[in-house]
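Chapter review. Work through the record for Cell division protein ZapE before attempting the end-of-chapter questions.
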Amino acid sequence: MSTVLHLPRSGFTRLPIVPGSLLDRSPQLDRGRLVRDLVPPPRFDAERFSTYRPDPTEPSQAAAVERLERYAARLGQRGGGRWFARRKAVDDGRGVYLDGGFGVGKTHLLASLWHEASGTKAFGTFVEYTNLVGALGFQPTVEALSGHQLVCIDEFELDDPGDTVLMATLLGRLATAGVSLAATSNTLPDALGAGRFAAEDFLREIQALSAKFEVLTVDGPDYRHRDTVDSPPPSSEDEVRAGVEREGGVLDHFIDVTRHLATVHPSRYRSMLDGVTAVGWTHVRPVTDQAVALRLVVLADRLYDADIPVFASGLPLGDLFSAEMLAGGYRKKYFRAISRLTALARHDLR
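Structure tokens for Cell division protein ZapE:
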């Protein structure tokens, strides 16, 4: 809120708004909140199967909706039954895996399933679950989630062998406890139409659980970029400041942000953004350090979850990661971050 200075004769003068800074935000670890925050992002609060609009030229989308509605109904029939009833559901092989490219509505569908399901449930990205294990420890995470009816994992990632083994082990423990599982993929944009390969990778990496998952392919183009494919041009520094002041957001030099992220555990990025209405970055430049890039990916996910507009000057956000990084082992993460940051930077088109 702006500060008003009242003068005796000339009325009042409104002092300029001084934007806040992410650098002032270093939230402490709240273990209970980490579990409570495992819910769909606010942008999906009102989304249901009925609000998903299947592309008539992509029949796999309507087929996925129909299958998930049946799956949700079966979850409802399970209710909070006894252990042996839940165990039977495990033996019936009840996991679902949505395979497809960016922006085809997989998260919308996964969130709709979460909303439709009864009982205790959790929804988070692959990274959020690995961060949860990092913050709580493996066994406490198993204990925190094993009483759930449903655990949803958005953007299951296969690019880090250690994390993949960790998640496969976690899911195995949860499946044994009778927890229903649902996951989505993060197939590369240039792999559209070849989703079956991502699905095979997923099933191979979670070998012991592969028989427990049914793969549902969701084809189609990235809806976020159907009208504007290229990254929006960068703003001037004055435009960034004006946009942040208008939204009452935070403003920082891009390099300062990257350094600050190293001081905050990624599990706390969500709470670091509490109450933030917009972020402004000046002097955006190429990211060449892998650790810095991966932290930016997590920040991009949390910004996107909260639907926080991004104002940026310097390098176009679409060029944030080098061609070498986009061809490397973490390319899926970087493509997702670009897709989401450029969507948030199109605030004038929303």
